[in-house]
Design brief:
This protein has 143 residues and is α+β, with helices and mostly antiparallel strands. Helices cover 20% and strands 15% of the residues.
Length: 143
């Protein structure tokens, strides 16, 4: 009489396809988006108020507050040749707009008169915290 083998084998692993990270840019070492072109005859550094207003025109689609008041803009370097270099972060590394937001910021600032090339670098250090928000943002978000 033949004996039956009752050992079990592990089920085959399921392939759910690519994860969200497959569709986002590699931001582990930062990510830089650019817009605009160098000015042929720069008139000096971009107007700081106009740059701030342009930054305030960009909103995180999940939060009803602009990125400037959220504290996502870490630094704005307005250079004498009209170029602008911006360092920013997001509320979380897994943010679904990680691949889009820096480009939106660069385009908003590059649209200003007197602005040449705009580079926006996405960084994760220091990490964003709610303490970076303006008083207006805290009020809007009941924070």
């Amino acid at each position: 009489m033949a004996t039956k083998d009752h050992t079990q084998t592990a089920p085959a692993a399921l392939d759910d396809g690519p994860g969200l990270e497959a569709f986002l840019p590699d931001t582990s070492d930062g990510y830089i988006a650019t817009a605009g072109t160098a000015l042929a005859a720069p008139a000096g550094a971009a107007d700081p108020i106009a740059v701030e207003d342009a930054l305030k025109s960009v909103h995180d689609p999940e939060i009803p507050v602009n990125i400037f008041d959220l504290g996502l803009i870490y630094d704005v370097d307005r250079r004498p040749n009209g170029d602008v270099y911006i360092t920013m972060s997001l509320t979380a590394p897994g943010c679904p707009v990680a691949g889009e937001m820096p480009g939106q910021v660069a385009a908003a600032v590059a649209a200003l008169d007197g602005v040449g090339e705009v580079s926006v670098e996405l960084v994760w250090s220091p990490p964003w915290t709610p303490e970076r928000m303006s008083d207006d943002a805290r009020l809007a978000l009941d924070f």
